[in-house]
Design goal:
By secondary structure, the protein is an alpha+beta fold. It contains 9 helices and 10 strands.
Length: 425
């Protein structure tokens, strides 16, 4: 029995709303749990000494986040951050300190005691999850009153330097914050990557049976999307720069352009010029980035290239909006919602990448795949139900026809028998 139209729309809207609400709770950052403090104000001392500065007020006053490209554009080398962390009473439980975002490795001292290090200060830069780490404090280190926190870093170049506000408090609560960030930055995108690649493979399998280019476009774009997300979570670049960032952007724009063409085919819009522009844009990204790198301004070319991709998405979204207004059904509503979410997340990521005060960016585009999962899942379920209903109706009609034919045949046989009996008399 088919679902009522009002119920189906309500269910689709509720599923998408729950998805976005759940994600917003993790992305926006909830209030700090009891006992956890955010450490923002402190000082920075440019000093290569291996021990923390003795003077708590030495150096330049700073407030985190502290991006060196803005606040210390000509500085590099070793430096100490110093902060005061005040506790009203001596802790009765183990405490921890959390560095949620840093572009270089760091050593953390509390009251002169080394409590942890994210890595070798003279080694390679931190990658992925290494940029956010927490360290448990020996029970006797934190005390009532003012506690001295010192963070030592080594910045090879000013554009690499940066530190986000620290978090300190009961270890149980801090670990929860660590897991929240780990899930939002790493585990969540990894799960989405596996899911969207699996879905893409199934859709390509469907395309092999139906040979509809719409299935091929979505399946291929989903696989590229998932692979791109998975590669972005690797602890280190699989190939050296500039090839890594060039192909990272090339793969990113490839699945974006394929989704734009998918939206055109899904909505039945025949914008030939736009389609050709989208295809040409997708193929041109990699060679253009190699050319700009050779000319010496490769990094400056990526923001306008990504902005161009966003513009293409907005045009496709306009086509989807027209289709949704015309059709007024669940599929069109979900497609428009998925496109709107993707466009909004892409704009967020573009702005975050250009914000120097965003030390450790949270990329939202991987999560936009969840909206497309809702869309494709609904389409597959809805079409399965429609096919099942059609098959049931066909069976009922076939049974009625067989019954009618059987009754007619029985009547004919009865008449034939009567005629034979009459002839024999």
């Amino acid at each position: 029995m088919p679902l009522p139209r009002e119920f189906s729309r309500l269910a689709a809207a509720a599923a998408l709303g729950a998805l976005l609400s759940a994600f917003g709770a993790s992305a926006s950052g909830a209030e700090l749990p009891p006992g956890v403090q955010r450490i923002v104000d402190g000082h920075i001392v440019f000093d290569a000494s291996p021990t923390p500065p003795a003077d708590t007020s030495a150096g330049e006053a700073i407030a985190l986040p502290d991006p060196w490209s803005v606040t210390h554009p000509d500085a590099k080398g070793y430096a100490w951050y110093t902060f005061d962390w005040t506790l009203a009473a001596a802790p009765d439980a183990v405490h921890a300190i959390y560095l949620p975002g840093t572009n270089v490795h760091a050593q953390v001292y509390v009251n002169g005691v080394l409590v942890g290090a994210t890595g070798d200060l003279d080694g390679r830069p931190p990658e992925s999850w290494e940029r956010a780490q927490a360290f448990g404090l020996p029970f006797e280190v934190p005390r009532a009153g003012t506690n001295r926190v010192a963070v030592r870093i080594n910045v090879p170049a000013a554009w690499m330097g940066g530190l986000e506000p620290l978090l300190a408090g009961p270890a149980v609560e801090v670990r929860r914050l660590v897991f929240r960030d780990l899930f939002a930055h790493t585990i969540g995108p990894a799960l989405v990557s596996v899911t969207i690649v699996t879905l893409g493979l199934f859709i390509l399998g469907l395309w092999l049976r139906r040979r509809d280019a719409t299935y091929a476009l979505f399946g291929a774009s989903a696989i590229l999307w998932g692979v791109h997300t998975a590669l972005s979570q690797l602890p280190s670049a699989p190939i050296p720069d500039p090839h890594w960032w060039i192909w990272w952007h090339g793969l990113y724009l490839a699945f974006v352009c394929m989704l734009c063409v998918f939206c055109l085919r899904f909505t039945g819009v025949d914008w030939r010029v736009y389609r050709r522009v989208v295809v040409a844009y997708g193929f041109a990204v990699v060679p253009v980035l190699y050319a700009t790198w050779a000319l010496g301004f490769g990094s400056a070319a990526t923001p306008p290239i990504r902005a161009g991709g966003i513009a293409l998405v907005l045009v496709a979204l306009y086509a989807v909006a027209r289709y949704a207004i015309r059709m007024r059904n669940t599929e069109s509503l979900l497609l428009f919602a998925a496109g709107a979410v993707s466009a909004a997340f892409a704009i967020h990521d573009w702005l975050a990448a250009r914000d120097p005060y965003s030390i450790r960016d949270l990329w939202l585009v991987p999560y936009a795949a969840l909206a497309f999962l809702v869309l494709v899942g609904w389409i597959l379920v809805d079409r399965f139900v429609q096919a099942l209903n059609a098959a049931e109706r066909s069976n009922v009609e076939l049974e009625e026809r067989v019954s009618e034919k059987s009754a007619a045949l029985a009547l004919q046989l009865e008449r034939t028998q009567e005629a034979r009996d009459a002839a024999e008399q």
